[in-house]
Here is the input.
Amino acid sequence: MKKVILSNVFSYLSFILSSQMAYAAESTLCKTDEEIILSCPVKGKERKIISICAKNTVDSKELSYIEYRFGTQKNTEMTYLVTKDNTAKIYRGLYDGTYSVFFGFKIKEYFYIAEVPQEVKGAHMNVIVRKNNTRIATILCKANNWEENKNIKTPLLTEVDGEALMEGKIEPTK
Here is the structure.
């Protein structure tokens, strides 16, 4: 009888753990050898995910790249790659008014701003898309995958004023 109960408990725990691992893998576009800076499944978009991923150099002393990704596990529709060798930039700023961390980058006349709100129950990450400084879309997340890595220190992230970044402007920190 004890063997049957232990076997059932083990099976149940194995199922729970494998389900959690599958969910974690499905809720990010980051690869297993990358750091997750942030990641979230998109609300209303079947299986779409927003992720910002980072990869360490071979010696692990600094990051070799940071990349924004949008899409599904099978089809990444958009990427934005920052390395020390290219001119691309991802900006990061903290807005003290809400304690939100913002990540932003610009491609031509489009500005993408990911808002990671204060880590409180019910708060959800979102991405704001602006064209020529006019908000054209807000992509809401179902849930957050807050990582300690949102505060990662690296020269690949350009620190700016969070309140300005929230509005799609790049200004030095105050």
Q: What stands out?
A: The longest helix spans residues 2-26.
